[in-house]
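Quick one: examine the sequence and fold tokens given here and explain what the tokens say about the fold. Here goes:
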Amino acid sequence: FGIIMLARYLEERRRGLDGRDALPRSVGFTAHATWTAAIAAGLSYVSLVLTDFRGFNQFGVIGGLGMFLCWLSSFTTLPALLIFIENRGWLRPRVGEARPVLASWLGRFVVGNYKVIAVGSAVLVFVSAGLVSRLSENTLESDFSKLRNKWSIEHGSGFWGSKVDAVFERYLTPTIILTQDVRDTPKVEEALEQLRARDGDSTPISDVKRVEDFLPTDQARKLRLIASIKKLLPPKVVARLSAEDRKLVDELLPKDALKPLVAGDLPDAILANFRELDGTIGRMVHVYPKLPPPLKPGESKEELGGFWNGKEVIRFAERLRESVKMAGVPAWIAGQPPLSADMISAIANDGPKATACAFFAVVLLVLLVFPKWELARSVLGALVMGVLWMAGIIGAFDIKINFLNFIALPITFGIGVDYGVNIFSRYRMDGARSIGRVIENTGGAVALCSFTTSIGYGSLLIAGSQAFVSFGTLAVLGEVTCLAAALVAFPAIWHFFEERASDELQHDALPTGKG
């Protein structure tokens, strides 16, 4: 926002106006367009509030608030700083100073090659539409190994964790089902065992453990057996045994009366896994997911299954929730699998909803800001074209949508419309047949806005987490396509129709006569 206002301020200063006259004009000419862009971007962030996942909710609130505060700072703090700088003579633009070279060249290029650009853009739209039609539910990323830290997968905890799991032939970290009452855990365990039996070899559950499972089974019968053995070995008989045998009897048949073992008698190494913060023991059920077989050459983790496969994670979480429902007792499920499953479900359910809300909110805003349909159509057309190109590239390169990078989709509607709003707002001020001049005067500032945004998103490309890299990739892709559509493609299309209308007027004005 500040870049757009500052660019207009410098333009007014180059025309010969002093700072105090140039500042109100630059603010007046740019406040409307930038405020519209800020609202559009804010609405795209706020659309994430409609999702059920709290992380997306909070991201939307922070992003929407940030957009408002950035615009407010650009039109309060920045003007004050400009006055401060002008009063000290630090800024002295020369009257008639040359416009930016690249923006001037781009304006001439678009006007000079408008037919080629317009036709090429239309072809890309049709190609992208065909690629978008190929998108399906398989576009959602289901291979979780592609979302973790790459170094961890290849050399760190992810790598060594898989080695440890292979040694023990099981996952060592369980998912916890916490019941409200100790007496409810047997019901949950029984329901889980029924589900394991029903699924057979395809079950996602490897093992189920309660703290009582570590106690000896059938203790009453065993205690009776020990008592009968003690009767067969009265003290007189034991006294006649050798020293070695007497020692063995003393170890195996304690003199004190035995009683059934309870959970509290187990070693602390076991109890620590079942003890709550308040000391309660016995309300937890540990559920271990099934470990997939070793990975074969050429086989992906997604094809193999297990906890790298998002579909298996969802199935595992569904079984846990189904067991609680079958048991008919109140219980809570905690662990990475249900959390991951919920995030995948949030993408599938809330992603389209948030994206659609962002799009329709932006459409409504543009229609309110641009009452003239021709300009509103151009702004929205540039946005749709940019987003369609972006979706086409996603389909062409089989880019997967995951729990993090899907946020880039609704955000692109809000930020992408920014460029069209600024270009065509300036066009509305400068009048018909001024599209080349608009690009020369405003295109550089618009491109710089996109570049600074891309730098922010691009910083994620060097992150260790592959999920952050995918988010940065998709966000930068949306920036590039929306900027190209607003700064090159649609201005060329607009100029194409202007030239066509001009030719028709000239044709109608030609004199006609009878032969």
